[in-house]
Write a structure and sequence with these properties.
The complex is a heterodimer. Chain A has 15 helices and 13 strands. In chain A, helix 5 crosses helix 8. Chain A has helices at 20-28, 32-42, 54-63, 84-91, 93-107, 124-140, 161-168, 197-209, 211-215, 248-255, 309-323, 329-347, 354-368, 372-387, 389-393; strands spanning 70-75, 111-116, 146-151, 192-196, 218-219, 222-223, 225-232, 238-243, 260-265, 271-274, 281-283, 292-294, 299-304. The longest helix of chain A is centred in the last third of the chain and has 19 residues, at 329-347. Helices cover 44% and strands 16% of the residues of chain A. In chain A, the strands form 4 sheets. Chain A has a 5-stranded mixed sheet with strand order 8-7-13-9-10. By secondary structure, chain A is of the alpha/beta class. In chain A, a hairpin with a 5-residue loop joins strand 7 (225-232) and strand 8 (238-243). Chain B is of the alpha/beta class. In chain B, the strands form 5 sheets. Chain B has a 5-stranded mixed sheet with strand order 2-1-5-3-4, with helices on both faces. In chain B, strands 12-11-14-15 form a 4-stranded parallel sheet, with helices on both faces. A 4-stranded mixed sheet of chain B has the order 13-18-17-16, with helices on one face. The model of chain B has no long low-confidence stretch (mean pLDDT 96). Classes of the chains: A alpha/beta, B alpha/beta. The A-B interface holds A 155, 157, 172, 174, 177, 179, 320-330, 332-337, 340-341, 344, 350, 357, 360-361, 364, 366-370, 375 and B 45-51, 53, 60-62, 64, 67-69, 82, 85-86, 89-90, 93-94, 96-97, 126-128, 130, 133, 153-154, 156, 173, 175-180.
């Protein structure tokens, strides 16, 4: 299997036509069921990284019975190497707000909350202005939907949806047990739709152009476009909207510096793709296109041959060791063991075979950790250790 | 009962369960034990230790059995290679972070992590020991509780206990990642925060991270010193809890064996806190009636009603921190332990012709807050420290084991005289509602000349595990001197567990409560569920202990405090009258407003 797919750029998200009043009217003139159907047929999946079908999420929340529901926009963009949500909120915030109103209309929620990453405080003033303008318009057309902004405090784990709820409720940001899922018991124990900023922005595209336009982009199981935050050893770092389904090879062809050794797809919690697997790895959601497909929140970090993969892994593990909430054993202790473990191997205090024990540990973490953080440490760890074992040892 | 059951499979066996049943419970009902650490029956589900993971067919990831509800058709596998390896990994990880100095640990032999390590035969340490890489300091500042973070496995049972059972939140989670720790406000020592010393965190800790400050060696020194006269008093709840540490089932009554064991340990006199429990009823009952008179007859607006009991030192410290403006509502009576201590070095010393300086006063309590209480500056009214050492039920069991006493085979003996007689009313102080019941039995009779209108003197409405219990008794045809109480409906409330105390205090604060008398005990179930009682604790165990307490009462010939002959003699020979001058000096106290921070 080779790369039959070419890199296709798109321009939906940042296309600034400022037509939200018109789109909003269009949305509110349809039935909630029509909107759910539209989303479901677009096959839009969550753009935060986990890839849950957005239409289904809205549908389940719409069916939940409660007197109060919430729409939450997850703008706690904390994955290393991701910086797209910031741009969306800065350049086209009205798309996100429109989508939140649409979601509220669909599920029967009157309250929206944007959980804004602590480091994005500089966006707050402008965002509040737009919200004010927006709410004014909503009142004009007889809609009661309010949007509040809640500032995060800098913990990575609060991007995990249930930890985010805890944080919103004024508690320590620790992930909850699932089930129950947010659509039945989310913020304050009430049905909640929580979507990533980009996901909401895509629904704007879908409601504007229709599901088909979106569905026709991308490939099977991975429909539509996606924003990519490109960083690392690249001559053109930045944010790019690309169709899903491309191979890493195509991506590197476009963005590499000619000496790309590996690409980290999906940030620290994603996987490292070494050069020999560029051809066989596609960027998208599960549903095998080529050999492997990797979902991503959009972080694409390129490394050239000047980079030590040991240092890269060391850096990730330090990040996880610090950003684990610390409540569950596999994640809290596992991350510490992985970090001091690779250091011990590097120093020669532990044999190279200790790396295999650590890989088995990451499997346990993947199977037993309470939330996505601990579960996903295995991705970068095993992909780096397996592909660059010699760099770990010598 | 009427809900439709769902069908699941546990290790292939089809099993019908109620919808919403957690996998852990479903497995247990089918004879399959799934190991747990962060799970505790008293507490909300945390699902953070991950040791209870099981496999669900069709799912790649494992699920925490404590936190995952059964669903129709679910195929649960509790003993696959993947499950075993994962659990083993998790235990290894916990051990790598745990100061596993087991032979020198107070919880050696009763540690849940140690038990799991033994069960899974963790014989090697593959992971790197993290303990030496961190700085730990042991918090020994509290007179009641020692907190050793190096032994903490971060299960948060203590945090949940402090929040859910007590509503105190002295312990909380601080920091994240590798630095995540169980801490206090600003990481202050335990004696400098809102901690009530109740010790519930100790009872709920699976390891040795939270233990009582023990005074076993000090007491051995005292009983071994021929120049000292060692007196011991035992609280009501000790006699029905002690057996659990010494081979008996929960709910076993071992009063006689306990007395024999204490004599064998070398105490010169083995006396009963129940005696001063009866005395408390005399003092507190009189105080209540005096307050009622002031309120109803003198129309004194400064009288604080409801009056609240003051036996539970955890409750006292709680109200001092949380509701300092309501300290006037507390009865001024010292707790039975402290009344006893004050009398031992005065009345008892005089009667026995002993130098109070040579008396060592020891108490055995189901409580860790009693250790703090004994150290309070208010508790030196005899001219000496009234109670020198306080041991928990657990510490007494340790001493009995150290002395090589075969507790099960012990003959029974009786308490020594002078301050050893007690009534059924004294013994029920050990259960929630007991003080109230004892007070009503005596007060009603003193006022009306008739027994309380409850069958067998059992005032059932104040018994049981309901968090807040209310009752009222209408006083009719009182004696001449209590005529002002005619027709008064005496309204009472009982709470146990400080989270329930909060409910009552908030209603008093809001002015929505019209009680005359409230009984509050810091611990769930009352003293029988105290922080110094045998570990483990659970609703079932506390229920059995409660049954034992009431059985003790039912078997007593005298069941009303005012009929305690030795108490009558004490008034005749020494105190003269309740609330008299000597009583005020020795048996009553004042309280100290404290800050929350």
């Amino acid at each position: 299997m080779g790369a039959q797919y070419q890199l296709n750029r798109a321009d939906f998200i940042f296309k600034n036509e400022n037509d939200w009043e018109e789109i909003l009217t269009k949305i509110l003139n349809q039935t909630p069921q029509d909107l759910i159907n539209e989303l479901i047929s677009s096959e839009l999946k969550g753009r935060g990284g986990a890839g849950f079908p957005t239409g289904l999420k809205w549908k389940v929340a719409a069916e939940a019975k409660a007197s109060r529901k919430f729409v939450i926009c997850n703008a706690d963009e904390g994955e290393p190497g991701t910086f797209k949500d910031r741009e969306i909120l800065e350049r086209v915030p009205y798309k996100v707000l429109t989508a939140m109103v649409a979601c509220g209309y669909v599920i029967g929620a009157k309250e929206g909350i944007i959980y804004l990453r602590g480091e994005y405080r500089f966006l707050l003033e402008e965002l509040l202005k737009v919200i004010e303008e927006f709410e004014y318009y909503l009142r004009e057309i007889g809609q009661t939907f309010t949007i509040k902004v809640f500032m995060g405090s800098g913990a990575y784990i609060c991007g995990e949806e249930t930890a985010l709820f805890e944080s919103l409720e004024g508690k320590r940001g620790e992930p909850r047990n699932k089930p129950p899922y947010p659509t039945s018991s989310g913020y304050m124990g009430l049905p909640t739709v929580i979507n990533n900023v980009e996901t909401l922005a895509h629904t704007y595209t879908i409601f504007k152009y229709g599901a088909k336009k979106f569905y026709d982009l991308g490939v099977q199981y991975s429909r539509g476009t996606k924003l990519f935050s490109v960083s690392g050893d690249t001559p053109k770092p930045g944010i790019y909207e690309l169709e899903l389904g491309m191979s890493v090879q195509d991506f590197v062809h476009e963005f590499g510096d000619g000496d790309t050794k590996a690409v980290q797809v999906g940030g620290a919690s994603g996987s490292l793709v070494p050069r020999k697997k560029f051809m066989d790895t596609a960027i998208g959601f599960s549903g095998k296109l080529t050999g492997i497909s990797l979902p991503t929140g959009g972080s694409m970090m390129l490394f050239n041959s000047s980079r030590s993969m040991y240092n890269v892994l060391d850096n990730y593990l330090e990040f996880f060791r610090e950003e684990s909430c610390g409540q569950c054993t596999p994640c809290r202790v596992g991350c510490q063991q992985l970090l001091i473990g690779i250091k011990a191997v590097k120093r020669g205090d532990k044999p190279a075979s200790y790396l295999d024990k650590l890989i088995r540990l990451t499997e346990t973490m993947q199977h037993t950790a309470k939330c996505g953080l601990g579960q996903s440490v295995a991705n970068s760890f095993s992909s780096i250790v397996e592909n660059f074992r010699e760099e770990m040892i010598y | 009962m009427s809900t439709k059951k769902i069908n699941i499979y546990i290790n292939g066996t089809p099993t019908p369960v109620e919808p919403g049943t957690m996998i852990l419970d479903a497995a247990k009902d089918n004879g399959i034990i799934i190991p747990t650490l962060c799970y505790h029956k008293d507490l909300c589900i945390a699902g953070n230790c991950r040791v209870c993971v099981v496999e669900i067919a069709g799912q790649k990831r494992l699920s925490a059995a404590c936190a995952t509800p059964c669903e129709e058709g679910m195929e649960i596998l509790t003993n696959t290679l993947k499950v075993r390896n994962s659990r083993k990994h998790i235990i290894e990880l916990l051990l790598s972070e745990h100061n596993a100095d087991c032979t020198k640990c107070y919880r050696n032999g009763s540690c849940e992590l140690q038990n799991l390590a033994s069960e899974y035969k963790i014989m090697t340490q593959d992971f790197i020991d993290l303990v030496p890489l961190k700085t730990y300091s042991m918090d020994m500042y509290s007179p009641s509780i020692i907190k050793d973070n190096s032994k903490c496995i971060r299960c948060q049972r203590c945090v949940r206990t402090c929040a859910e059972i007590q509503g105190v939140n002295a312990l909380t989670v601080a920091h994240k990642g590798d630095e995540m720790t169980i801490s206090t406000f600003l990481n202050k020592p335990m004696n400098a925060v809102v901690c009530t010393n109740c010790g519930q965190c100790i009872n709920h800790c699976p390891t040795g991270a939270l233990v009582e400050k023990n005074y076993i060696e000090e007491v051995w020194d005292a009983v071994s010193n021929p120049n000292l006269h060692a007196v011991v008093q035992t609280a009501p709840a000790v006699r029905i809890g002690l057996g659990e540490e010494l081979g008996f089932e929960p709910g076993s009554r071992n009063t006689g064996k306990m007395v024999t064991a204490l004599k064998r340990l070398g105490f010169d006199s083995v006396l009963d806190t129940d005696f001063t429990a009866d005395l408390t009823i005399m003092e507190e009952g009189t105080e209540l009636l005096t307050r009622l008179k002031k309120a109803l007859v003198d129309k004194d607006e400064n009288v604080k009603l409801p009056m609240a009991t003051s036996c539970s030192p955890g409750w006292i410290k709680y109200i001092e921190h949380m509701y300092p403006e309501f300290l006037g509502h507390l009865s001024t009576c010292k707790s039975p332990q402290q009344m006893f201590g004050a009398l031992v070095k005065t009345y008892y010393a005089k009667a026995r012709n002993l130098d109070p300086d040579k008396i060592v006063s020891v108490s055995i309590m189901p409580c860790t807050a009693k250790k703090f209480e004994a150290s309070r500056p208010e508790m030196f009214d005899s001219g000496y420290r009234d109670v020198d050492y306080v041991l928990t039920t657990r510490e007494l069991a340790i001493m009995i084991k150290q002395a090589g006493i075969n507790f099960k085979a012990l003959e029974e003996s009786k308490f020594d005289r002078l301050m050893g007689e007690s009534t059924g009313a004294g013994v029920i102080f050990g259960a929630t509602g007991g003080v109230m019941e004892a007070a009503l039995r005596s007060a009603y009779e003193l006022v009306t000349g008739r027994e309380v209108p409850f069958k067998n003197l059992d005032i059932k409405p104040v018994r049981g595990m309901e968090g807040v219990k209310e009752t009222s008794i209408k006083i009719e045809n009182p004696k001449q001197e209590w005529a002002f109480l005619d027709g008064v409906e005496l309204k009472c409330a009982v709470a146990h567990g400080l989270v329930n105390a909060k409910t009552i205090m908030d209603s008093i604060k809001k002015g929505t409560a019209d009680y005359h008398f409230v009984e509050i005990m810091a611990c769930p179930g009352g003293c029988l569920g105290g922080g110094g009682q045998p570990i483990p604790t659970s609703p079932e165990i506390r229920k059995k202990r409660t049954e034992a307490i009431y059985a003790e009462d039912a078997h007593m010939t005298v069941r009303k405090s005012h009929e305690n002959h030795e108490v009558q003699k004490l008034y005749h020979d020494f105190l003269i009258t309740p609330l008299g001058e000597l009583s005020h000096k020795l048996l009553h106290t004042k309280y100290t407003p404290r800050n929350r921070y």
